[in-house]
């Protein structure tokens, strides 16, 4: 009998963004302490003698994927939509060394969509992404579910 297990790992990172053209205060550069919950699923590998025996995916392997795809490029960065006006005249450019330009508005919703694509592309066969939950604040988050995104 096939038995499926879900695993969740939680990640934290700091990032700033601004919403170009937005009418509220979020049009200004501001930062958040993000929390990302990544849930995967699969059947545990019960092949005797394998180092991954009994695991869907080693938590360390999941951590490495999320670290490479999301945390390393975005932690302590500033995310802006391409075409946003950013004047650096007279400012120490070293302060702006970690700008991440995106073709989409850097909302929590768009970030979680982007993160899903990045993670899915790196998961091994037999392991699927079930859910992402990206907290922008302690009380506000966006969620992505694989079951909602079936073609």
UniProtKB/TrEMBL annotation:
EC no. given is: 4.1.2.50
Q: In which pathway does it act?
A: Purine metabolism; 7-cyano-7-deazaguanine biosynthesis
Cofactor annotation:
Zn(2+)
The domain of life for this entry's organism is Bacteria
Which regions form coiled coils? Answer: none
- List keywords of the entry alphabetically: Lyase, Metal-binding, Zinc
Keyword Metal-binding annotated = yes
Q: Which Pfam families match?
A: PTPS (PF01242)
Q: Which GO terms of the molecular function aspect are on file?
A: 6-carboxytetrahydropterin synthase activity; metal ion binding
The reactions it catalyses are: 7,8-dihydroneopterin 3'-triphosphate + H2O = 6-carboxy-5,6,7,8-tetrahydropterin + triphosphate + acetaldehyde + 2 H(+)
Q: Which SUPFAM superfamilies match?
A: Tetrahydrobiopterin biosynthesis enzymes-like
PANTHER family found in the cross-reference section: 6-PYRUVOYL TETRAHYDROBIOPTERIN SYNTHASE (PTHR12589:SF7), PYRUVOYL TETRAHYDROBIOPTERIN SYNTHASE (PTHR12589)
**Protein family per UniProt:** Belongs to the PTPS family. QueD subfamily.
State the protein's name. 6-carboxy-5,6,7,8-tetrahydropterin synthase
